[in-house]
Every structure is written in structure tokens, then in C-alpha cells.
Amino acid sequence: MKALIQRYERNTIGSRLYAVYQVALGQPSRKLEELYQTSFKPITNWVHRFENEGIDGLRDKRGRGRKSLLSTEQTGQLLHLLLEESPTDQG
Length: 91
Prior knowledge:
The protein is mostly helical. It has a domain at 1-61. The chain has 5 helices and no strands. It has helices spanning 2-7, 9-24, 33-36, 40-53, 72-84. The longest helix is centred in the first third of the chain and has 16 residues, at 9-24. The protein is elongated and about 60 Å long. The two termini are 35 Å apart.
């Protein structure tokens, strides 16, 4: 269910905005860790980004995370194999 909720950006932004609101009301970010299933650091980052950038600061930034080891061509080939061919065709 968590993955389904996180798939929709509007839900993610709304959840982060509510966390920022709770911090503004005096709730310590460490007490919000369990509720938001994250450590206190992302929560404090959301607060700072909201203060500096507004709602746009709560959106996920592009280019985050580990870069793919596969080239675009390799990713296309893999996708083709997964969607178009059966496992028995590949041995």
C-alpha cells in the first residue's frame, strides 16, 4: 500500500507538506519518524526546502539515486527481452 501511495506525486507532496505543518506546530521531527517511515533527516530537509522553495521544494528532484550501469541501448534490449520473448527462448 505504501508503494501505491508513493507512486502518486500529489500524495507524496501532501504527506511532506503535512509533516512540515506538524513541525511548524512544534512537533519534533524525531517523533515523526515512525509516522512517515523515514529518519528525522529527510523530515528536516523537507522543512528547509519548503522554507526556501515553497511547495516545489517538496517535489523529488531529478537525478537522485544511483545512476544506471546500463546504457540506454542495453535498457531497451532488456525491456524487449522481458516483454517480447519467453524465458525458454533464452534458455
